[in-house]
Amino acid sequence: MSDLDPVAGIKTDSAHSQPLAQRFDCILFDLDGVLYRGSQAIKGASKTIKTLGSLNIGRSFITNNASKTPAQVAAHLRELGMDAAPIDVATSPQAAVQVLEDFVAQGRASARARVYVVGGEGIEWALHDGGFESTRDPEGCQVVMQGFGPLVTWSELAEAAYLVANGALWIATNLDSTFPTDKGIAPGNGSLVNAVAAAAGRGPDGVGGKPAPALLEFALEQSGAHYPLMVGDRYDTDIAGAIAVGIPNLLVLSGVCGPQEVWTSDLRSDYLAEDVTALIETYPDIDLHGDSATCEGAIATLNRADRSANVSGGSMINGLRALEALKWQLLAEGFAGSARGSDIATLVRVEWPDSGLLEGKER
Ligand SMILES: [Mg+2]
Fold first, then answer.
1. Would you say 293 and 300 are in contact if contact means Cβ atoms under 8 Å apart?
2. Which residues are catalytic?
3. What does the pLDDT look like over 254-293, one tens digit per residue?
4. Rounded distance, CA 94 to CA 125, Å?
5. Which strands form 308-312's sheet, in the order they lie side by side?
6. Taking residues 123-138, what's their average pLDDT?
7. What does 332-357 look like in DSSP terms, one character per residue?
8. Distance CA 280, CA 283 (A)
9. Nearest Cα residue to 294 out of 310, 271, 276, 307
10. Which pLDDT does position 363 carry in this prediction?
């Protein structure tokens, strides 16, 4: 195995002619918007997973969705043509149980505590797997674990609020405020956690899912990865989570983020791609020369006089990669008093032949 690059945390022996994935020994995948959208596999995802297997690169499938067990998540991936076993899956309830174990180690909870469950079957499964007693009866519970479940009721939220107000330890599987469904955007677990917090007068004591570090730490330990890459479609959970645990990351545009979200983000992803098939292709070099950045025929050039950036040539994704390189260089020099990535997006007007590209799609 090659040495760890102390700066990037990636293999140093990766020739640029190799597929991007070969710089790593395990790829951590967010699921929705990365490998599938609801019941549909994203184009090329199945082929990518298969190729990673033949290259002997590990796969870890990561989800903040608390309603399903690892076996159910793996079964859904297999239905979509992706080879996945339950042991390759890491869910937010599993991370929440790790958080509970930490509280037990600190003496803030008993290993024999009764845990009141609000949410789906995935939470009960993870608690049982971790040796904890789960129940749907709030009587005498010292711990509340709250996650998404399509059948969560007002009564359960009320019982959780009573317990929390009376001093129970409260762990949320995740804090995603929204939950995309086939019909549109629905309230996610974070919105229901907020409902309990409003009644109880305080927030949860611990959180399992991204961007909190517990879920990625659990996945890293489970997979045994030494040179991991996190792949996700959201800055606020996937990229922020990868940054929180210090691992390289790839943002794909097959989910909630488009070029506009990339350009206006305060966070920087290490790699950018249209979708996961980029993992099994070579990743192009991006060259910065003064106020120009180039990437495989695409060029982004800053005009300081009128604070504009012109993008031309090459493909959309390579134009965006070049523009990003320019953006972060401008931030590093504190261009026009900028302090955050989004400041650059406010200060610099982008001229792109396809003007529709920088219209937002994040929700
Ligand atoms: Mg996602």
1. yes
2. 30, 32
3. 998 999 999 999 999 999 999 999 999 999 999 999 999 9
4. 9
5. 287-289, 292-295, 298-303, 308-312, 349-351
6. 97
7. HTTGGG--SHHHHHHH-EEE-SSGGG
8. 9
9. 310
10. 44
Residue 255 CA, ligand 1 centroid: distance in Å: 6
User: Binning pLDDT at 50, 70 and 90, where does residue 179 land?
Assistant: confident
Give the contacts of 245 (CB within 8 A, at least 6 positions apart): 213, 216, 217, 220
Query: How far does the centroid of ligand 1 lie from the alpha carbon of residue 235, in Å?
Result: 10
198 and 239 belong to one structural domain: no
Q: Are residues 222 and 311 in the same domain?
A: no
Same domain, 185 and 104: yes
pLDDT of 10 strictly over 80: no
29 CA to centre of ligand 1 in angstroms: 9
Domains: count for the chain: 3
* pLDDT over 50 (residue 8): no
Ligand 1 ion local residues (Cβ < 5 A)? 30, 32-33, 233, 255
Q: What is the mean pLDDT of residues 52-62?
A: 98
Q: Is 46:40 a contact under the CB 8 Å cutoff?
A: no
First-residue to last-residue Cα distance in the chain: 41
Taking the centre of ligand 1 as the mean of its atom positions, its distance from the CA of residue 173, in whole angstroms, is 16
Is the pLDDT at 123 greater than 80? The verdict is yes
Q: Please give the distance, rounded to the nearest whole angstrom, from the Cα atom of residue 42 to the centre of ligand 1.
A: 12
CA of 211 to the centre of ligand 1 (A): 12
Last residue within a domain, chosen from 156, 171, 206: 206
Nearest one of 124, 189, 176 to 150, comparing CA atoms: 189
Distance CA 133, CA 175 (A): 23
Name the residue range of residue 241's domain: 20-64+212-280
Which pLDDT band holds residue 5 (cuts at 50, 70, 90)?
A: very low
What are the pLDDT digits (tens) for 132-168?
999 999 999 999 999 999 999 999 999 999 999 999 9
Q: Are residues 105 and 199 in the same domain?
A: yes
| Greatest Cα-to-Cα distance within the chain, rounded to the nearest angstrom | 68
Q: Tell me the pairing of strands 26-30 and 228-232.
A: parallel
Global confidence as pTM? 0.91
